[in-house]
Amino acid sequence: MAREARQEKGSSQTLKAVLGVRDLVFSGAIPPGERMSEVSVSERLGLSRTPVRAALARLEQEGILDAIPSGATPCGSLPKPT
């Protein structure tokens, strides 16, 4: 049962990170092409690096971010969310 609670908390933190990064990108707070690092995003969102890392990977899979070896970068032309 404790393991399930930890998993749920981890999922919740990852969801917060996904929504937070998505909001930063689509609101223009992070301009297209600007480099984003796990450290800067985690500090900005007040979350640890693990859920932020998962969020960046998920948003890369969704095509919202481009991964580069030294960090993640928002795509140049982003579709507007519906």
Report on the structure:
- By secondary structure, the chain is mainly alpha-helical.
- The protein has a single domain (2-74), classed as Arc Repressor Mutant, subunit A, CATH 1.10.10.
- It has helices at residues 2-27, 38-45, 49-61; strands at 65-68, 71-74.
- A two-stranded antiparallel sheet has the order 1-2.
- A hairpin with a 2-residue loop joins strand 1 and strand 2 (71-74).
- Helix 1 crosses helix 3 (49-61) and helix 2 (38-45) crosses helix 3.
- The protein is globular and about 30 Å long.
- The termini are far apart.
- The mean pLDDT is 82.
Share in helix: 55-70%
Structural Rg: 13 Å
Q: Helical stretch count?
A: 3
> Strand sequence of the main sheet, in spatial order?
1-2
Q: pLDDT under 50 segments (min length 5)?
A: none
